[in-house]
Amino acid sequence: MLKVERAGKTASVSITGEINEELVIDLVDAVRGLCEEHFYRTVEIRIASPGGRVHALEYYMEAAAEFRRRGWTIVTRALLSAESAAAVMVSMGDRRIASPSSLLRYHAGRIHLDNAAVTASVAAGMRAALDDTDVWMISALAKRARRAGDAGGPAAAPDQFRESDWPLVARLTNAPGSGRAGGSPGELLGRLRKRVAKGLAKRTPKALARLYGELISADQPISAALALELRLIDELAPGGAAAPGAEPPSGPLFRVPEWRALFPAGGVETEALCRHALILGDSGSGKTVSGVLPVVRALLREDNDVGCALVVDPKRDIEPALRGLSGAPVREIALSGGGAPWILNLMAGSRSVEDDLEHDRVLSAATKILVRAGSLVPDHPARTLAGGTLRSSEPYWGKSGARMARDALALALLVLRHRRDLFGERQAVRLGRDEGAARRALRAFARGAGLVAPSPEAERLAARARERLADPGETPAEVLRTNFAREVRGGYLYLDPGFKTDFEALKAACPEPVDPDEFNDATRELLDGVVSASCRPDGDGAHVPAGRSAPVNAIGLAATALDLLFEWPAGGSADQRLPATPVAELLAGLFDGEEVAELRRNVRLWQGIATGEYRSHYNGVLGHATPCLSDFAEGLPRERLFFGCEPFYRDVAGHRSWAADVVDFDAAVGDEDGRSVYVLHPDLGDTPDALLVRALKACFFEAVLDCAGRREPGHGMPLVAYVCDEFHRFVTNDRAHGEQSYLDTSRSFRAPCVLASQSMASIRHALGGTGVGAHAAQPAVDMLVTNTATKLVFRSTDPEVRGYLDQLCPLDAAGRRVTEARPPSTLEVGECYAVTADGRFERRQLEPFSPPPAGPGADASPRAPDPSADRSGGA
User: Fold this and answer.
1) Would you tell me which of 18, 224, 256, 567 could form a disulfide with 98, CB atoms 3.0–4.6 Å apart?
2) 3-state SS string over 402-421?
3) Could you give the CA distance from residue 85 to residue 67 in angstroms, rounded to a whole number?
C-alpha cells in the first residue's frame, strides 16, 4: 500500500507490504509529482515492509540516482521493521533514519520456488544470478556508507542494542585465528567501531563489502542501534519527527541561513542579489521576519562587501537584526522630531542654484527649486513648471497657482540674496518716506521668516523703557516721546532709515499722557514694534535667530512671502490690504536684471487681479499656489530639507552648517574603504515623515547613479544597498529617482534593493491613486515587477498578486498550475512562492529570523540550527 501526505513544510510517502514492481512504480511517480508539480525538494519515504523483488529494488535505485542529479533529497525512514529489499531501500536514502525500536534484516538474495523441478544446469544459473545480486547489493551498501563519511560517526549506547545483537557483533568482530569468541558489550562495541572505521578509511570499499557480506550471510534481524554503528543508517529518531540537517558550509558571498530551503546552503550570489528582490505579503504573513530580516542581516554583516546602505524601517522590526553587528557604523536618523538635528541639501552638485542667484536669475532658480520639490511629492502642482501635466479636472488653476508660487519663491530668493542691503543697521539702500509701507512689509517678512533677529541694543532700550513706564513719576507719553527717543539716538539706531520711519510713526500713534495705572497692552505692543523694527541681519548662518527653534528653508520663506508680501494687512478690516506693488517696485528699483523686471511685472499682474473686479479669480489662483509650497513649508521638512541657498546652510569645506549634521550620501557611496549604514524610523501615520524619506531616498539614488567610480565598466566598488519595508508608503515614480527608474539602472552599479510591501494594489495606489492616476501608474508598477528578479510572495489576498503568480507559474504535465490548487491566500506563516533570479519557481517554507545573542563575536557565524525545526526544505 502507498500513501502520500503533504503537510505544508513536509511531504512524505508511506509504503507497507511487499516491494513489488507495481508499488515501486507508484512510489517513483509519487516522488516525481511532489517535486515537479508541488515544488518539494525533500521527500521522506517511510517504510514498513517484509521485503520484495530484486527487479523492483533495481528500478527504485535507478530512479533515486536520477533524483539526486536533479537536486532532490530523499529521506528514508524505517518504521517497525524493514527486511530484505526494504532494508536496502532504507540504507540507500540521502538521509537515513530509523525508529529506535525498529528492526532491519539484511540477507542474501533468494529465489522462491513452488514445487518446481530444478536441474543441475538451472541450479548453477540460479546460483550465478544470486551471487551477482549479492555482490551488487553489498557493493551499493558499501559505497553509500563511504559517501556518508566518518566525521566522528554517530554512536549508540549499549543499552539500545537487543540481546540478539551481541552474538552477531562478536561474530563480526572475531578476527580469524584470534581465538576470541566474545567479550563484554563495551569491548565488543569498541572492536566493531574499530573495524567500521578501518573500512571507511580504506581507499576502496572492499573492507566494508566484506563486513556487509558477513552481515547478510548471518540472515538475522538487527536493531536500529546496530545498523547505526554499521553505518547502514545515519540517525535514530522516534516516530515521525524529522531530524535537522547539518549546518551548511561556508557558501557564496552572502549567506542567509534562513533561506536554506530556497538557495543552496542559504547562499545568495552577488549577481543574483544585485538583480533586486520584491517581497509581498499581508500583515502577519511572515514577510518581514522570514524575508526582510534575514537578507538585511546578511547584507550588513561586517565581513561582507557592502560600503553603504539606506534602510527604511517604519515598524522598527529591522532594528533587532542590526544589533550585534561587529563594528557596523549604524546611524539612525530621527524623522518625527527629537534626536540630533540633521539637514539635507536637495540641490547639491549640478542642481545648485548659486550661479542663478549670483546673477539675480531668481525666476530660473525658483523654477528649479519647485520642480525639484515637486518631484518628491506625488502629483505635485509644480510639475507643470517642467512641462508636466496635472491629474486634475482644473488644470488651468493648477498651472496658474504654480506660477504664483514660483513668483513668491523668486521674491523670497531676491530678498534672501540681498538681505544685508535691505536689513543692515547702516543700510546702503536709502528709502524715501513714501516707501515706508514697503519697508514695513519687508521687515515683517524678514522677521517672520527668521532672516533677521532683534538688535540687542533695541532690546536693552525697550527693557529700560518698560522700567521707566512703571515709575509713577513719568507718563507713558513722556517716556516714549522724550527719554526713550534720546536713548534711541544715543544707540545709533536712529541712523537706520527704516527704524527712523517706524519710530516716527510710533510717536505719532502714541496716546496722550495717561495715568500709569492705565498703561495697557496696546502701549506694550508699541514697544515690541520698536524692537521688531530694529533688527539685524542674520547673514552667516552661524546661529539660530532669536526666538526661533530652527531655520526655515527657501520654500518656507516663499510661503511667508505669499502670505505677507502679496497681501500684507495694513490694519482695519480684514479686506483692507496693502498692495504688493510697492514691494515689487522697491526691489525692481534697487536691483537690476531681466528676471527681476519680469518678476515685477508678474507681481503687478497678481496685484491687478487681486484689487480689480476679478477678486474671486485671484483667490482661486491663491488656493492652488499654497499647495505648491505647503509640503516643504511646514513642520520638520522646513527645518530639514534645504536647497543650498539659505543663509543657515553652508555647503563649504567640512559641510558645516548651523550646528546640524549634513547627510552626505555622495561621500558615503563613493568611499571604497569606509562603511555607512543609515537607518530611518519614519512614522506610519499622517506625518511629514513620508516626504523626508522620499527626499533622503532620492538623494541616495542620485548619489549612486552619479558616482564616477561606479560608472566605470567592471568596477569592483563595494555594494550599496537600499532596503525599504512598507515601501509603498514612500515610493515615487519620478523619472529621475523613482524606484522603477533606479532599479532599471542600478544593477551595473552594484546596488541591490530589497523592497517589501503588502500588495501590488498598495503600490499602485501610492503611485497614482485611483481612476486616471492608477492607469498612469501602471507602467511604473510593471517596471518594478520586471526589475525585481527575485520575488517572495507570502500569504496574500490581493487578486493582482495572484494574477502575477499565475503568469510566472509553470504548467505541469496536465496543464495545471500549482497556484490553482494552493493559492497564495492559503499559505502558512513564513511560507512563500519564490521566483528566483536563476529562473526557478518554487514554493518554500522559510525559517523565521531570530537575533543572535549580543556580545563580542556574536556575529561570527550563522546561528546554529534548531534541533526541533524541520529543515528539509518543504513546500
Assistant:
1) 224
2) HHHHHHHHHHHHHHHHCHHH
3) 19
Query: Please, is 301 exposed, middle or buried when counting C-beta atoms within 10 Å of its C-beta (0-12, 13-18, 19+)?
Result: middle
| Residue 241 pLDDT > 50 | no
pLDDT band at 752 (very low <50, low <70, confident <90, very high): very high
Residues 555, 637: Cα–Cα separation, whole Å: 10
- How confident is the model over 224-247, as a mean pLDDT? 71
Choose among 345, 396, 333, 394: nearest CA to 373: 345
Other beta carbons within 10 angstroms of residue 105's beta carbon come to: 19
The 10s digit of each residue's pLDDT in 261-320 is: 888 778 888 888 889 999 999 989 999 999 999 998 888 877 778 889 999 998 888 877
pLDDT digits (tens, 9 = 90+) for 697-711: 989 998 998 888 888
Look at the block and give the residue holding cell 488653476.
397
Amino acid at 585: E
The one-letter code for the residue type at 412 is A
According to the model, what pLDDT value does residue 35 have?
Answer: 85
Ramachandran quadrant class, 542 (left: phi over 0; alpha: psi -120 to 50; beta: rest) = alpha
Residues, the chain, total?
Answer: 875
Contact assessment for residue 844 and residue 835, using Cβ atoms and an 8 Å cutoff: no
Rounded Cα distance, 596 and 587, in Å = 8
Which H helix or E strand runs over 544? Answer: none
- Report which residue type is found at 208: L
Report residue 249 as a C-alpha cell: 558550509
Is the CA virtual torsion 719, 724, 727, 729 positive or negative?
negative
Distance CA 465, CA 719 (A): 65
Longest dimension (CA), the chain: 149
Neighbours of 330 (CB within 10 A): 16
Mean pLDDT of 318-327: 70
Query: What is the pLDDT averaged over residues 485-514?
Result: 59
The answer to whether 360 and 414 have CB atoms below 8 angstroms apart is yes
Which segments within 513-571 are labelled E, that is strand? 535-537, 567-569
Q: Which of 124-133, 398-407, 841-850 has the lowest mean pLDDT?
A: 124-133
* DSSP code, position 291: I
Give Cβ neighbours of residue 649 (< 8 Å, ≥ 6 apart): 343, 345, 541, 551, 642, 657, 658
Q: Could you please report the per-residue DSSP string of 657-701?
A: BSS-EEP-HHHHHH-SS--EEEEE---SSSSTHHHHHHHHHHHHH
Strand-strand pairing, 103-105 and 95-98 = unpaired
Cell of 113: 520456488
567 bridge partner residues = 579
User: What was the pLDDT predicted at 574?
Assistant: 38
Closest to 349 (Cα-Cα) out of 651, 41, 141? 651
pTM of the model as a whole: 0.65
Cell numbers linked to 603? 507681481
What distance in Å separates the CA atoms of residue 285 and residue 267, rounded to the nearest whole number?
Answer: 23
317 class by beta-carbon count within 10 Å (0-12 exposed, 13-18 middle, 19+ buried)? middle
Amino acid at 736: A
β-strand 831-835 against 841-845: which pairing, if any?
A: antiparallel
Neighbour tally for 146: CB within 10 Å: 18
Q: Which three cell numbers stand for residue 390?
A: 496635472
**Class of residue 151 by CB neighbours under 10 A (exposed 0-12, middle 13-18, buried 19+):** exposed
Average pLDDT, the chain: 76
The one-letter amino acid at 486 = R
pLDDT of residue 302: 73
C-alpha cell at position 612: 480689480
Nearest to 216 by CA among 228, 200, 232, 229: 232
Find out whether 309 and 723 touch, Cβ atoms under 8 Å: yes
Q: What was the pLDDT predicted at 363?
A: 94
Contact 91, 141 (CB under 8 A): yes
Helix, strand, coil % in the chain, rounded to nearest 5: 50, 15, 40
Coil, strand or helix at 578 = strand
* Residue in 417, 357, 399, 344 with CA at minimum distance from that of residue 628: 399
